[in-house]
Amino acid sequence: MRQYFNPVIPGCYPDPSICRVKDHYYLVASSFEYFPGIPIFESIDLINWRSLGCVLNRPEQVDLKGSNGHSGIFAPTIRYYGGMFYVVATNVSHGGHFIVKSKDPRKGWSNPIYINQEGIDPSLYFERKTAYLLSTAKDHGKDAILISKVNLDTGETRGPHYLWHGDGGRYLEGPHLYKINGFYYLLASEGGTEYGHMLVLARSRTLLGKYIPCPDNPILTNRNLGGYELQGTGHGDLIQDINGRWWIVFLGFRQLGQYLQFHTLGREVNLLPVVFRNNWVNIKDKIARLKIMTKRKIPRQKRLKDKQQKDLKIGDDLVFLRNPNLKNYKLTPTLFKLKGDGLLSERMISPTALFTRQRSFNDSFSAKVDVKESRAGLTVYLESDQHYDLILEERNGKWILSRRLSIGPAIDEKVIASVEKVSGKGLPKLMIECKKGYYILKARINNKNINCGRYDARFLSSEVAGDFTGVMLGIFIEKQGTATFSEIEIKRNGRKLWERF
Ligand code: 6LW
């Protein structure tokens, strides 16, 4: 037996969709209010994934004005057909469903072509040179999956048809259609993307139905595993590997603790082996666990790498909020010089800030900060009104260090230290240490450590904020003026990547 651990892609990468081209696999995920949008990964073994940046990395591809943790870009699907990659997704804030194409995901993607069809979670299915678009829909108020023929050059759709009305759970979504061994399989999710989430399946002998639900639905759910470490499993995509075996990628989240029903890391990418039994998809125990034992040949699973400032790439490790004004950023391998443009809490702008996903419970994030006539620092950020910040200012020859807790309408800012600037002692260093259940804020100024407190992680959870995103660790500046960040370091918790209760 061999083993690997879920999540195979840790951090906020929800709604995974996957395709294979020869011996390479490609996976995309949702990105909501962040730019660049739709992260894309590549793998040769399904276990170890490498970032290929993002699908939407030119401002003209995506308008994210006013978006937040529950709008912007939702649920992409990736498919490869006739020598071309296609990604369909929904910009919930502006324009709805769209499609982008690429011959080579490393070389970039086309501008979007918008598609006029209701719902979310678009998906493509190809047959005999015809492209079909699936999405969620409402049929007389009832959840349904809608299918129509789509012209991939114009985005026009024809012949809409309700394919399936689900298996009785709420929020029928995330449809993906496959033809395998003479059956059409429709995979979808029900229950909502929280603790009741599940994967359901239906099949038909003909494309347009009738689709018969799997007698064993839900084919995967962790909803009955109270206190279990992986929850909310659903929204998946099937893939056949190069050796003909089947797998499923799907989202799930790790709770903060056995009796702490909160999650901060967002919904992550998990992987399970599947088999076909009686022409239905079968997942062992219908449960997803963190540790997977399998007889299948799999390679050793690599750990996430720690990163230093020179390693950080936009789209791989770093993202902006919404539609950033790129003139406010001067980024060199050793210095990030940021110009202030509004407050971190402002929703209708893109405040000057750069974020990296928190990807393990024990990540740490630190940077040296030099600030001129401004306020700048580090943030533990879930969304515009849920964040913990360390803020540095320079006033009358002193460094003023504050911590700010922003939890909905409750905002508490407190000065922690006011320290003489001493030449030759170097720049202040600000630090965030993530722990399971809390965040520790720290600083080091003039070679002295300053404790800035430890703060409960629950208030930055999706359960409190109601968002679809996970915690980001970031740098920001809030007033006019500039700040320079150097020696940025991200530690990904080394050995203890797959933490247990
Ligand atoms: C997505 C829906 C869902 O569109 O959450 O878990 C929504 N599933 O399918 C946003 O990620």
TrEMBL record:
GO terms for biological process: carbohydrate metabolic process. The active site is at 15 (proton acceptor), 173 (proton donor). The record marks 121 as: Important for catalytic activity, responsible for pKa modulation of the active site Glu and correct orientation of both the proton donor and substrate. Signal peptide: none annotated. Keywords: Glycosidase, Hydrolase. One of its GO terms (molecular function) is hydrolase activity, hydrolyzing O-glycosyl compounds. Residues 314-482 form the Beta-xylosidase C-terminal Concanavalin A-like domain. InterPro entries: ConA-like_dom_sf, GH43_C2, Glyco_hydro_43, Glyco_hydro_beta-prop_sf, Glycosyl_Hydrlase_43. SUPFAM superfamilies: Arabinanase/levansucrase/invertase (SSF75005), Concanavalin A-like lectins/glucanases (SSF49899). CDD domains: GH43_XynB-like (cd18617). Belongs to the glycosyl hydrolase 43 family. This is Family 43 glycosylhydrolase. It comes from Lactobacillus johnsonii. The lineage of its organism: Bacteria, Bacillati, Bacillota, Bacilli, Lactobacillales.
